[in-house]
Amino acid sequence: MAGPGARPSKDVQPKLRLDKWLFAARFFKNRELAAEVIESGHLRLNGQRCKKPGHGVAEGDTLTFPQGRAIRVIRVLALSDRRGPAQEAQLLYHDLAPTADAPLE
Predict the structure, then answer these.
(1) What is the largest distance, in Å, between two alpha-carbon atoms of the chain?
(2) C-alpha to C-alpha distances, 44 to 36, 37, 50, 52, 104, nearest whole angstrom
(3) Which string of b and e fits 14-43 if b means at least 16 CB within 10 Å?
(4) If exposure means fewest CB atoms within 10 Å of the residue's CB, which of 5, 56, 63, 72 is most exposed?
(5) What pTM was estimated for this model as a whole?
(6) Span 68-102, pLDDT tens digits
């Protein structure tokens, strides 16, 4: 078992708390709102319902959750526990939901 000063293993993917990442990516105004959505069971992580705000999210994960009247489907591209400017936050994810102005085929 590794102690607090141990180096992370190369095969272990870094993770971040789900509520912290949603706040850093600017989907919610604060972590409490993000935690409420998660705890109410309205968020899916890779297709599985997630009810723990402390659950780990990693690069490549897909999140599905309601935001206002829309359902957001996003893929996590990067981790950040710092809430930076909006332009930085947009680099953390890729929106997979179709846009309203895109033509349907």
Answers:
(1) 54
(2) 14, 10, 6, 11, 25
(3) eebbbbbbbbbbbbbeebeebbebbeeebb
(4) 5
(5) 0.81
(6) 888 999 999 999 989 999 999 999 999 997 665 54
